[in-house]
């Protein structure tokens, strides 16, 4: 197991098809970073949940976890729920570096890519 892990963190949904783009994103990311473990975790309704995934990563020898919220914006789950979970994970695993970054939708490059897609839809 890689000592570094990247966790793509999504909301979760009842319909398993909802997670397909997240799985493709995980596969694309993993292919570009084979030296890092790239995993999916969910807030609710789907497995694995973030605490269970991090527990498994730590048991497998991971020493650094970066959590990337795959949310369009910094809503309540990212602003309130995720920080509480990250704080608890840091308490549970004090020897593991655990950090969370901004939601993907807050990144200028991501927004520009989405804008290019939207503009391209006019050409279709």
From TrEMBL:
Pfam families xrefs: CbiX
Q: Where is the secretion signal located?
A: none
Does the entry feature the keyword Metal-binding, yes or no? yes
* GO MF, one example: lyase activity
Checking CDD domains in the record gives: CbiX_SirB_N
Q: What is this protein called?
A: Cobalamin biosynthesis protein CbiX
Classification via InterPro entries: CbiX-like, Sirohydro_Cobaltochel/CbiX
The alphabetized UniProt keywords are: Lyase, Metal-binding
């Amino acid at each position: 197991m890689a000592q570094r892990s990247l966790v793509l963190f999504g909301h979760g949904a009842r319909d398993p098809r909802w997670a397909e783009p997240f799985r493709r994103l995980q596969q694309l990311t993993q292919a570009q970073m084979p030296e890092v473990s790239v995993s999916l975790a969910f807030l609710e309704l789907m497995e694995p949940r973030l605490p269970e995934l991090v527990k498994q990563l730590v048991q497998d020898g991971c020493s650094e976890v970066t959590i990337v919220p795959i949310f369009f914006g910094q809503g309540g789950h990212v602003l309130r729920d995720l920080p509480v979970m990250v704080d608890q994970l840091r308490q549970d695993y004090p020897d593991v570096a655990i950090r969370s970054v901004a939601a993907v939708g807050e990144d200028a490059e991501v927004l520009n890519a989405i804008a290019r897609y939207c503009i391209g839809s006019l050409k279709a």
